[in-house]
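To: structure subgroup
Subject: Chain for Friday's discussion

All,

I'm putting the inputs and outputs inline so they're searchable in the archive.
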Amino acid sequence: MLRKEEKAVNILEMNIENTEKGNIQGIKNRL
């Protein structure tokens, strides 16, 4: 159970990081 939850948390954190990087790149592209 714990390992599955940890993996899910890691995936969510990676998704958030990628989304933030994508947003920053998108803003730079607009400028």
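Points worth raising on Friday:
The two ends are 45 Å apart (CA to CA).
The mean pLDDT is 92.

D.
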